[in-house]
Amino acid sequence: MSRAKPSLPGYAVFAAMLASAGLPIYIHAPKFYVDTYGVSLTALAAVLFGLRLFDVVQDPVLGWLVGRWRSNRKAAVIGGGLLIAASMLGLFAIAPPLPPLVWFTLTMIGLFSAFSFLTIAMYSEGVTAAGRIGGGGHLKLAAWRETGALLGVCVASIAPLVLGFAGFALSFAVLVAVAVWLMRAEWGAGIAPQGGGFGFVLRDALARRLLLIALLNAAPVAVSSTLFLFYVESVLEAADWAGPFLILFFVMAAISAPVWSRLARANGSRRMLFVAMTLAIVGFLGAVALGPGDTLLFAIVCIITGFALGADFALLPAAFAARMEQVAPEAGEGFGLWAFVSKATLALAAITLLPPLEAVGFRAGGTSPDGAIAMLTYLYAGVPCVLKLGAMALLAVTPLPSDEALTP
To answer: Are 361 and 372 in contact (CB under 8 A)?
Structure first.
């Protein structure tokens, strides 16, 4: 008996819940533990770096588990939901029963592990769910899912400031319950685990090329994310505007994701990705020329680059999902590798960008020589242009499965 069409609002809410536990936690958690418990910022930075490395390494393993637990995925998702809610409550709403740094580490491990597992499960489930939607299924599903995720980032970025951290944690636990309930009929109960490990994915030439495109295309976001606050503070000299700029950037991405999805169904995903990448390059080139006080012009840059980012979220995962439908439809390994590639760019960006900046005399929050400010500008705005050009060159010789499988 065929299953009903998937719940697109369910995917949107589930993605919003996961996004609320991602980037916003990196923004809020360290400051909360410094202000509330007096934890050393250096110690927190070391823990976050170690957690990021652990997170990157565990993603392929979690992808393997998602594939092996296919027949019991509903129970696994419920368990993951309980872990992510409990970890968030422990992080923000419960006074540490252990030394604060130890408690921070334990709750963050639980939070990020559950986040990664649930994210991979959601994307893996979407491979088969899209086939039950009809024409353009992968793009339609991606539009709902990625729009929900981007809105979740926007809301969670400001919610702790409005509700307080304990209120945010309690609200998040409620959101987890709602998201899991909305997705209760989506998980592949009773389907025997299939998939053949990472070999099925890595032996496929098109899948490997899509992973490389994802790496090249995600790297500019990693670069700009790593250097964003430094750029706003030291180049624009507008540190107070960092929050509004971030919100503007992600709101534009959320607004544009369904727009790019509709355009791709009409014109092809590859063509629209070329347009979006070109738009991103135009935006970053504009940032090269900015200086102190150019806040309005940088807001325009945020609008342009945020709008372009929506295509990255909506179209590339849909193309990869379409290929996984052909290569390993019941496995989670593919999206374990996808998550690994996405997160590895953040680690690589920090390792390759920050030491050269420090070497030329850049000092965050202090006075830096003109040469250091110039290097910061070119790293923030110039390197993403080069990486985008590399992604475009590879995309030019890659036939996206979405062009054939996703359009009506």
So the answer is: yes
